[in-house]
Amino acid sequence: MRLRLVCIAASILAGATLPVSAQQPEVARAPDRGAHARVPGIIVSPVPNLPFSGRDNIEWTRKLDDGSSLTQHLDAVVARDSQGRIYRETHSFVAAGSNQKSPLREFIIYDREARTRTACNVSSKRCEVSLYNPATNRAEPPVGPSPDGKSVLARESLGNSVVENLSVVGTRETLTTAAGAVGNTQPLVSTREFWYSPELQINVSVTRQSPTEGTQAIQLLEVSRSDPDPALFQIPAEYQIHAHRSTPDPSIGGR
């Protein structure tokens, strides 16, 4: 036995190869960030004298290749004060039906008077201030074929209803994209359903259905018509503020 142990030790010292299962795999790739999806919530315009606050609730369901489905959700605070300033949050998705709370990643303050968009990262406690130029005239796409002939848009009225104690007007849009237009082998049919509040001048409910993105159900919940807490529009003292001159995406109050 002693002779056998001596032989094994000698083999190791001589550089004998370890068994494959004990070897560490070599890294043979560059870093990769993977795919990241973003679902826009309720779009809010910086309209003065129409204050509100509520929860931007998003539920996202996608069909998987094996026939099963994946459903995630998030809740994010959104508010607009009487000055037309907008506060909104960006949260991460969590599993629907779980007790998890969707983590807050960022909060953004849009100030129409100062023309600033202040985006604050929660983990780094850093705020980036950029120019904010809200669009004033947002034209809806016309029904019928698109100018390039690759798609056709249809629009229909869904009548009137009440959502969150608000009178709303419903509209459904159906977009049919021709085969081959975006690399698709068959025509793609997507729908969007809007319930618009004339009182607040926002959509309080939006449902998007797409073969590629699944179903995104977005609704403004727990709506208050009072002016939101002014503290929402104040940057916490522990955050560092950095100003930039670049202009961000002009989406009004976009996520």
Task: Describe what this molecule looks like in 3D.
By secondary structure, this protein is mostly beta strands. It has a single domain, classed as outer membrane lipoprotein receptor (LolB), chain A. Helices cover 5% and strands 44% of the residues. The protein is built from one helix and 14 strands; from the N terminus they run αββββββββββββββ. It has one helix at 2-13, and strands at residues 52-63, 69-80, 86-91, 94-95, 104-111, 116-121, 126-131, 144-145, 151-163, 166-177, 188-197, 202-210, 214-224, 240-243. Strands 1, 2, 3, 4, 5, 6, 7, 8, 9, 10, 11, 12, 13 and 14 form a 14-stranded mixed β-sheet that branches. A hairpin with a 4-residue loop joins strand 6 and strand 7 (126-131). The N and C termini lie far apart (71 Å).
Question: Which percent band covers the strand fraction?
Answer: 35-45%
Q: Given the structure, what is the number of helices? A: 1
CATH class: Mainly Beta
> Rg to the nearest angstrom?
26 Å
Q: What count of domains describes the coordinates? A: 1
Spans of at least 5 consecutive residues whose pLDDT stays below 50 are: 5-16
- Summarize the main sheet: 14 strands, mixed
In short:
The protein has one helix and 14 strands, in the order αββββββββββββββ.
